[in-house]
Amino acid sequence: MKKTGLICLFLMALYQLGAQPLLEKRVSLSARDEPLEEVLYQLIDKEGIQLSFSNSILPPKKRVTLEIDQQPLGTALAQILDGTPIAFRVVGGQVVLYRKKEQPEETTTYTISGYVKDAETGEAIYGAVVYEPDLLVGTYTNEFGYYSITLPRNDHGLLFSYLGYRTDTVTLSLLKDFLLDMALQPAYLAEVIVNSFADSVQLETGLSQITINLAQAARMPALGGEADLLRIGHTLPGIQTGTDGFGGISVRGGNVDQNLFLLDGVPVYNAMHGAGVYSIFNTTAVRSIQLSKGVFPAQYGGRISSVWDVQTKEGNSNFFQGEVDIGLSSGKLTLEGPFKGKKGSFFISGRRAFFDFYSEPITRRLRRENDVDGSIGYYFYDLNFKTNYQLSPKDRVYLSYYQGKDYFTDRYDQFKWFADTLAALRDKEDIDWGNRIASLRWNHNYNNKLFGNTSLTFSQYFYRSEKLIDLEILQNDTRLRRDIDYSIYFSDIRDFSLKTDFDYSASPQHQFRFGASAIKHRFQPGIVNFNQSSIIGSIELDTLGETNKQPLESYEFDAYVQDEIKIGKFLEANIGLRASALAVEDKVYLSPQPRVLLSYFPDKNLSFHASAGRVTQFLHLLSPTSFGLPKDLWVSATAKVPPQQSWQYVLGVKRKFAGGLQASLEGYYKTMSGLIVFKGIFLERINAQSWQEPEAISRGKGWSYGLEALVQWEREKASAWLGYTLAKSERQFDNEINGGRKFPTRLDRRHNFNLQFLYKFNRQWEFSLGFVYATGAAFTFPLEEYEFVQPPGSPPLDIIQTPRPVDNLNNFRLPAYHKLDLALNHYFWQRKARHAIRVGVFNVYDRRNPLYYSLRDRFDESGELNRQIIQVSLLPIFPTLRYSLEFR
pTM of the prediction? Predict the structure, then answer.
């Protein structure tokens, strides 16, 4: 309660600093028998009041005599209009005059519906705003660009806007239901990089829902010169990450497994390449990304901390075009275009990393210097494909496919002669992991109020590692000994789902969304181990049987309904309920999840927000390190292990100021239950059943709370944002973990600052920088201690290990994390081709931010064994050079 009270006081203070209701503004006015029209114009000219009225509604013979000295505007208008049939109200930052008798309750309504698309490519725009400013009523386009808005019979001016596009306005007389498709022109001047709603539109149910401007994200500094969506997300308040992105994302104190990544509506289990250095989302293939980090609407579920809703491009439906993009870190090729007759389009894009081009020759040379053969290689690739076709004016089908993979290999071959004896050591390790995602979607426009979409989807995440150590000793071509240690570890997760969603525009005050889904989860971890010594004959490794391969299946069912409600002139609400059920083994879990999001707009430049909601997550992640590594194992809640639950409460305020400045402040408090922590060190020792035992996991709960501030500034040629987060996140498990006491999470960073700046010199040149400073992450040092006792006798003998329990988890802090990135972009055009060259520097002053510390025993010059603390860092100063070519 104390924390909630502090948040309220903070929000009230910001309101007092920036908010002054228009009708309370003090004005002075003097009139002696003057026409009403002239008196009103005095308010406009001398006091700077924005009045909107038609001269035709003014009584022609009305004259005014009064003397007003520093009175509220509302009081002054009441005196001026006394005795007339004219009333007034504040609409969008101005005072509107109207005839009282012209405001009867309108009972006849009609619906305007259609699609909003990109004027150049024909791509549907997801999240575009459709707004009627006089009535303060509006809606958003769905992921297919469709909108439907119901308004009273009258003349209306509709405003269409989206980040990175020019706002367009259409005036029409609404005398019947109306079909209206809009094509928005891209805006190439500097726009706001990140925003949660259009500047001139009051349409939001919380600050926690954010749209990321992809065009601007591509202009900011990036590792290797390639914009990455999740790295842009790192710069927003409330989002914490490990060193240089390694180890996953924590949103508002949540675990790395509590983030839902959706690719065209399909859940992605591992959205990272290289354990977090890059994401799987190729920005060239992405059409839009919506981030929900607070209480999200009822249409979303399955994770308890955040939703990253990524929609891929559908393909240019007007003309064929392509793009080649190549840099030091990766290369991309993209092709897209319409089908004959322009009833559909296709899009295909591929990306491959180049890290193995550097690592293999370098490590091969280094190993040869030590009389060793072999090398180390790593790369990843992504493939995106999507096509759509219009079956009829009301029906369209979409087919999309994604495949991505990381591949790591390590070869180490050493041959040593000792007189007539040869010792041959072969050490080989291969690791690959990735995702396969497919979806078939059909959307149907039932009528101008009801839009439906039905999807059949498939999602797979796989991990496989193979390790072989083969030591062979030969003497005079006779095998004396052969020792082999061979193991295969794999994990395979497959989801099959069927879902349907509907959008229904009931009235100007009610926009409904409802739907249902069914998912079959299949989890299959397994391990093959083979150990053999003193072997004389040959070994057929491919004949080894698979063990511990025990799949676990569960079935998840979800249904939801939500209503976006317009309450009066200044209050909006999104009230929803999501009901989920999980059937696993002989157990059924039922979970009702209410969501309430409220927004209050006292005027055009000020908004208050409050929300509360419950979310259930039926999945857990087994991780010995909590880093969110590819090897970590996803498992379902079971009869023995219940699902995760979370309640979150949010208060926020947003204020727009003059000069392109706006600021927001948000406070949150979140509780989490049903958490588990994996007590084992080796995932290879478990399978889909044994992990549930008390010896393998501990159960607990968590808390997180904090304040988030975001200041944004925009001018014609420059834009910037500064984010700050004050946060705390704690966990508590049973007595075996930290003695049952609370402890901070690994990504608990008390303070986090992020500054992003973009300056556009002209159409061809622009400069950007990014700076981050964050409190050091928490860590346990050492992770575990052992007493090593060498038994008497000659080696090799087993070492006796006596573990010592750690007194306090995450009891140390890494040094503060900070770095500066710079980028310079140049664009030029030749005929129908657009060229872009990006140069820059990642980590300009070469800050060696520690990834972790380890203890290492080394012999000094005198032969004594000393323990040293070793810092491991990830990314030093790194140059950026990238070239892209767009052609048609």
Answer: 0.81
